[in-house]
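This entry is listed as follows:

___
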Amino acid sequence: MIVWIVFIAFVLVFLALDLGVFHKNDHVIKSKEAGIWTVIWITVAFSFSGVIYWLFNSGIVDNPTGLTPNNAVLKYITGYLIELSLSVDNIFVIAVIFSSFKIPPLYQHRVLFWGILGAIVFRALMIFFGVALITKFEWIIYIFGIFLLYTAFNMLKGDEADFDPKNSFVFKMIKKIYPVSSNMNGHDFFVKTKDVNAATPLFVALIVIELTDILFALDSIPAILAITADPFIVFTSNILAILGLRSMYFLISRMLEKFRYINYSLVVILAFVGLKMLFSHYIELPEWVSLAVISVALASGVLASLFIKERE
């Protein structure tokens, strides 16, 4: 438990520094700043693979699945890349939500900060129960596999392109439960109007982002559980990918149209992981195969977007 406590403390300390020091004053995140933070978080995430090797080599952390240090590192990197790649679709939805509720760029970082904090809590619970289910009921892995294939099929059809936050069930329920104001009040989530406390568009956007992230976690967490059922590797790879999501959003949200083939990469990744789950009891693939498939799929989507000219 000491290892878990130290890791969570590291995350909480950095989040406190993030909002209290680095982004104390609201400002528009430019591409240069977002690029620097993206590089920092990716470097931290890949450097943590050294910590994973040390922990599993020294036996400091529990090793319920009997991983060797090298296998633990490969599974951690593979899980991190899966979560990072699936975050691209999440970024598109966040951009749509901000646009729909007319959230100024000045306050978008604050909304994402609290959104990330909530996502960490919810994903920790989902990982805990997901690992417990797979450990106790091995047949659950087939359910996860079918679900991932279904998600890949829907993504291939492009149904998510019709997503409208203001027509969503979540937004309609918020309006029924709590008064909603159409006016901004700086970076405040609530405003007092006519002796009634009302939620500002910032709070509504935060709740919608939080709940859509839970829906995305239904894809990404089973995908990582297909790589490993080790709770520490699943948790750390997932959380480090989420922490880098904000800077990635500000870096690539303006360039999403350029990466028009990246969705096909995500379809390939989800389909591959889903099939791996379905055949997990019959075919055991080396970890480098999973890592290679995910890396090639991502690289192919990016290169195709850059070099294939769009039809007029």
